[in-house]
Amino acid sequence: MEPKEESNFKTQVYTAICVNLLAVAYGNSFGWISPALDLLKTEATPLPSGPLSDYEIGIVGSASSFGGFLTSFIYGWIADKIGRKRALISIAIPQVIAWLLIYFGQNAYYLIAARFFQGFSGGGIYIVVPLFITEISEDRIRGRLGSLMVLSVNIGMIMAYVSGAYINYHWNCIILLIVPFCFFISVSVIHESPIYLMENGKTKHAEDALKFYRSGFGYKKAEMSSRVKHEYDNMNSLIKSAHLEGDSKLTLSDFTTKAARKSIIAAMALMVFEIFTGTYALLSYASLVFDESGSTLSPNDSAIIVGVIQVVGVYVSTLLVDRAGRKLLMVTSAACCTIGLVVFCVYDYMKVIGNDVSDFKFIPLLSFSFVIFFANLGLVSLPFLIITELTPMKIKSTVYSFALVFSWGLAFLTIYFLPTTIVVLGIYGTMSIFAICCLIGVIFNIFYIPETKNRSIEEIQAIMSR
Questions:
Q1: Using one digit for the tens of pLDDT, what is the confidence trace for 306-352?
Q2: pTM (2 decimals)?
């Protein structure tokens, strides 16, 4: 094969790392809140207004959910109207505003506004980043690049856990503010999505963008190879068949095709399985799990350990997603989460009925780590990638936005009702519900979700239309 036919992944990898700096920054906001609230509620608080009350802490902690819920409705539309690259830039601006509000904060209102902006940015990230990465990546590395988002969020969380524990409150804001500024600098050299440019009739720009993502930074001197020309023609045909040229508007019939119906069902189900892995419950009760195992670690050290487990799980997923495939990882993830939750349930039930479990106090921590790792191997890390691959192009932004709104709402309800559920059913009863959901996830992924590894978007859509 001639050298010009060889793939050049450099610009695709660079672009994926660049846009996922936004995900790192969003992870920073998650990680920052844990050590920060411990300080803000004490007399040593940096706020001139004094320590935060329990009520204020609750609002500060939950304000990001409202911001994320709001942007989940609008950012798919924004990405279609102004383009993926401009949408990404607009996502970074609220992150900068948030850290400035925290740095100059005088009272709880500053922090509530900051957390709202952080959630506002996060909602946009979960929509635009996977969409953009799917559209610029080659089939062979689309899975690895697509799974970087969840990995980046977890890396950002660990960064903030560590910096929040050992660095001054105000200096920590400055350090975390560096991440979105690095994004602004690095994003300047990347191109818009070729598919978005084709959709809007900018064929010459689309050719240049595709050459950039396939030939590397020296794309201006490179001719469009036969392989890239073939890919360009396939993209163009897919857009025409989806009636995406010009100002074609969505209609109800776009959502009633067989491929659309199947992708919508898959999107909603994957969001349910993501939330009901039990990870949200386990993370909410992390300190309880560590206490049960006899650990003497501080809450922040425990959070760092949990963050490391999550990063390792997602990193392994990133390594395997284009080798083992999405389907195998999702099935393995759901099956192992089921096993880990069942073991957790049995231990807690034995303890509740009065059996001596003192020789098995390691089980809660072991089960906790096992579930967190395998959840991040598939059920937590891959749904966003799979949804963008399965959904027809014309309705992709809309379906993805709706799935994300559904996920935000489901996560809120799960966390809100979790304490009540534990009081009524006990920890073992609550975890049994999650275990059953994970078992259903095994069956659903085996029989409903197609394997998308090494398949083009055109091939995937043909499978979904059967």
A1: 888 888 998 899 889 888 889 999 999 999 999 999 998 998 899 88
A2: 0.81
Q: Which residues have a Cβ under 8 Å from the Cβ of 228 and sit 6 or more positions away? A: 210, 211, 214, 215
Burial label, 369 (beta-carbon count in 10 A; 0-12, 13-18, 19+)? buried
pLDDT recorded at residue 253: 83
Give the burial class of 4: count Cβ atoms within 10 A of its Cβ; 0-12 exposed, 13-18 middle, 19 or more buried.
middle
How far apart, in whole angstroms, are the C-alpha atoms of residue 370 and residue 341? 9
Q: How would DSSP label each residue in 289-321?
A: HHHHTT----HHHHHHHHHHHHHHHHHHHHHHT
Give the H or E element holding residue 90. helix 84-103
pLDDT, tens only, 419-457:
788 888 888 898 899 999 999 999 999 999 999 888 888
Burial level of 252, CB count in 10 A (0-12/13-18/19+)?
A: exposed
Distance, CA of 24 to CA of 146 (rounded, Å): 14
46: left (phi > 0), else alpha (psi -120 to 50), else beta? Answer: alpha
Cα 395 to Cα 255: distance, rounded to the nearest angstrom: 7
